[in-house]
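Ticket #4471: structure output looks truncated?

Reporter: J.K.
Steps to reproduce: submitted the chain below (243 residues) through the standard prediction queue, then opened the result file.
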Amino acid sequence: METIRLSKLMSTRGLCSRREADVYIERGWVKVDGQVVSELGSKVLPDCHIELATQAQREQGNRVTILLNKPVGYVSAQAEDGYQPAVTLVTAANQYADDHSGLRYSNEHQRGLAPAGRLDIDSTGLLVLTQDGRIAKQLIGDDTRVDKEYLVRVQGRLSPEGLKLLNHGLKLDDAALRPAKVVWQNEDQLSFTLREGKKRQIRRMCDLVGLKVVGLKRVRIGGVKLGDLPQGQWRYLAADESF
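Returned output as attached by the reporter:
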């Protein structure tokens, strides 16, 4: 049986991110079939038993995930062209008053906080920022099973055939898109539910069927909804919530 890099296997199994795996291995916090493995780059059998030490589990338990209602004009990740990254909105003053997680803002919660997915600069709505590599892996990547729902205001005429194409049949970047769920919400607003996230995907899909997007808001990621969270404010992912 062919061996596999331990950090990659840990990531594949959803135990942590590959970067976190390397940290845990280096600290001696990983056992493989009952034996501590502390050498970076170690390879193991794909059916081996992997166990995280209590210290690693405790560290994971202390990591936070933040839900932000991103306004227009903020970028998801690194600052660009004079625009600020959305993480700059994560301050004590901007924490949602009705946050029921029981957590209160700490500067420690900024350390390693990164967006799990993107939301265009001219789009609003639910953006996830997390310290937890397990959640990042769950939400990002070609194999994600977590769907995302968007409300999209449009201008233009859409034929029944165009609506069918939005649901399945379009290509972007010479690759067929996965089936989507696209339905009318009202006379000028569509609901898109997707399981992939190509750059500016919804806007480009609409262009292909003759629609112009004039407003786009992400309202749900998996089992987590934007709800009443005001624009520019954030809250913690609660212990009883999951994507």
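Triage note (M.O.): checked the attachment and the full token line is present. Residues 173 and 198 are 9 Å apart (CA to CA).
Status: closed, working as intended.
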